[in-house]
Amino acid sequence: MRNKIKQLMNKEEGFTLVELLAVIVILGIIVAIAIPAIGNIIDRAQGGANEAEDALVIDAARLYFTTTDEAHGGSVTVGTLKSGGYIEVRDSENLSDTITVTRSGGDGDAYTYDITER
């Protein structure tokens, strides 16, 4: 019985250095491929979020211009939209008060809205 236990304890099995290095190389290749792909996904998501944010600010500016005396053009900042209750900002780091919406080109009901950041 003791001999059998000694035989089992002496029988050490594991991975060789070559096998471990092969796994590390394979993982490195996977990471090298995955990181740029993930970066592109994040960039596209950020671009989509920025477009949605711009649309929200323009909608708030449209409401502002239709409810105030500025009938044909003018500018309004996000700070003015926030203080007037036209827009609610939960994350002020992403939507700065220095963003300005300018309305121009009033041909009937067609206006051009431009967003700039000072």
Report what the structure shows.
There is one protein chain. The protein is an alpha+beta fold. It has one domain. The protein contains three helices and three strands. It has helices spanning 2-10, 17-67, 78-83; strands spanning 74-77, 99-107, 110-117. Strand 2 (99-107) and strand 3 (110-117) form a beta hairpin. The chain is rod-shaped. The N and C termini lie far apart (84 Å).
Topology:
Layout: H1 2-10, H2 17-67, E1 74-77, H3 78-83, E2 99-107, E3 110-117
Antiparallel strand pairs: 1-2, 2-3
Q: Which strands sit side by side, in order, in the main sheet?
A: 1-2-3
Percent helix among the residues? 55-70%
- Which secondary-structure class do the elements indicate? alpha+beta
Using only C-alpha atoms, the radius of gyration works out to 30 Å
Tell me how many strands there are: 3
Number of domains: 1
What is the overall pLDDT average? 80
N- to C-terminal separation?
A: 84 Å
Tally the helices: what do you get? 3
| Quaternary organization | single chain
Net shape: rod-shaped
Largest sheet: 3 strands, antiparallel
H/E element order: HHEHEE
Strand content: 15-25%
Low-confidence stretches: none
InterPro entries: N_methyl_site, Pilin-like
Subcellular location: Cell surface
Keywords: Competence, Membrane, Transmembrane, Transmembrane helix
Pfam families: N_methyl
